[in-house]
Give the backbone structure.
Amino acid sequence: MSATNEITNSGELVDTKYAGEAGEGASEYRRILDRAEERQECPFCPEFLQQGNEVLHKVSGWSVISNKWPYENAETHLLFIPDRHITDIVDVVLRDWFAIRKATAWAREQYGALMDGGALVVRYGLRSGVTVRHLHFQLITARVDPETGEVPEGKHVVFPIG
Ligand SMILES: [Zn+2]
């Protein structure tokens, strides 16, 4: 967490419910989340985000990174993360929506698969099942069969809520 981003209660940073098993043999993803919780460091606040991720693009206080742990069957899986530690969808104000629009346009130029379609999704709050509470949008597109140009049967990207 940064000086400008105040986090007071445990559980406001991450929820490891869907992040796999803890302890020995835990995935790198789970270990990063456990460390964040233990140290009360938000993995998506700028100082920590930059430690473990390459920021691909910056636009108006938002960073674009590639998801290190893309969903199964995803061709492209990007995250749009605001510098501000916000956790609620209503904290996304007009200038943020412009930034998200710009980031989406940039991503479509960089990743051709996104030109053919994708999904921009965001979860907020405990009921959503979000893992990192710091609000983030996910821009995802599915992998297609190169011969047909279509997503093969049963190879959809599943985005869980709850
Ligand atoms: Zn944060």
Remarks:
- The CA atoms of residues 25 and 31 lie 9 Å apart.
